[in-house]
Amino acid sequence: MQVPGWLAALPHGERIAFSLRAAGVPVVVSENFEAVIAAADRPVVLIGHFTAAPAAVRCAQTRSGLAALVLVSPVLGVWDGASNGLADLMDEVGSGPSLGGLPTLWLHGSDDQIVPISDTREGIGRIRGSAFEEHVADGLLTDGEAVTRVLEFTRRVV
Length: 158
Hints:
Organism: Lentzea pudingi
Helix content: 40-55%
Strand order of the largest sheet: 2-1-3-4-5-6
Radius of gyration: 14 Å
Number of helices: 6
Mean pLDDT: 88
Protein name: Alpha/beta hydrolase family protein
Number of strands: 6
InterPro entries: AB_hydrolase_fold
Low-confidence stretches: none
Order of helices and strands: EHEHEHEHEHEH
Distance between the termini: 17 Å
Strand content: 15-25%
């Protein structure tokens, strides 16, 4: 298997990180995006999963130097379970700039009951840039499908 020449900085997605590592991808699980990006010796694909997605988007909105962004079942737009801090961050993301030309992949399941796709779609609409792709799985998005889509996407754009 060809090992991608990129580093995935993945907050809140340990199972997906494990599978990416098994595929030969160097992965760092951290909530300190800035440190990982600054220390990287190769292009960085930032992967935000679930409640870490708003922080990943905000990082992409406020800094340069990322090769791509992947959002896996992201909490964006409206979410009833958001704490005050998360709700504030989601508001910052929603009122921030689009992702412009940054290659971005959004992965979600059509039947996700924890993060309903209709609520997330509203948030995605606010940040969608010109290099935006989405994949909505029938039912729930599995870790295997997420990893496959991430690898396919990054091999094309990085």
